């Protein structure tokens, strides 16, 4: 899903050679828009991501909420506050990566998946 223009890639397969819909089922991707980067959950390299997605779906919904909801306390400081300002940094190698969560999560759907307990 592209959050900027709210579009998502859709897949349609018509092939006699498809053996699995979860691992490299397509011969090519055709579309009007080309993205600089895209998450391809069907790529063979995404096996770990597919397994992690199932593992997350098997966790209780309340546990997931606690894991992704920021729990900053007023007296806590972030690493950015401890790093020197850019103009004082001799080696500008500091980089901060963080998880960007969607603006809204369908907790009801996640709870239903948890109750289903997917296995693959």
Question: Helix coverage percent of residues?
Answer: 25-40%
- Report the sheet with the most strands, covering strand number, pairing sense and barrel closure: none
Oligomer: single chain
Number of distinct beta strands: 0
The structure class reads mainly alpha
Describe this structure in words.
The chain has helices spanning 47-57, 61-68, 79-82, 107-116. The protein is extended, with a radius of gyration of 20 Å. The chain contains 4 helices and no strands. With 120 residues, it is mostly helical. It starts with 46 loop residues before the first helix and ends with a helix. The longest helix has 11 residues, at 47-57.
Task: Pick out its properties.
mainly alpha; 120 residues
Short description:
With 120 residues, the chain is mostly helical.
Topology:
Layout lengths: L46 H11 L3 H8 L10 H4 L24 H10 L4
């Amino acid at each position: 899903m592209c959050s900027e223009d709210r579009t998502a890639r859709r897949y349609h397969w018509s092939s006699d050679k498809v053996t699995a819909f979860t691992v490299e089922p397509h011969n090519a991707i055709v579309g009007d828009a080309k993205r600089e980067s895209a998450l391809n959950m069907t790529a063979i390299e995404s096996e770990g991501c597919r397994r992690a997605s199932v593992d997350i779906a098997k966790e209780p919904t309340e546990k997931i909420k606690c894991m992704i909801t920021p729990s900053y306390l007023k007296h806590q400081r972030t690493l950015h506050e401890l790093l020197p300002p850019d103009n004082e940094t001799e080696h500008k190698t500091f980089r901060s990566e963080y998880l960007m969560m969607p603006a809204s999560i369908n907790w009801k759907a996640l709870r239903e998946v948890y109750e289903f307990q997917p296995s693959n």
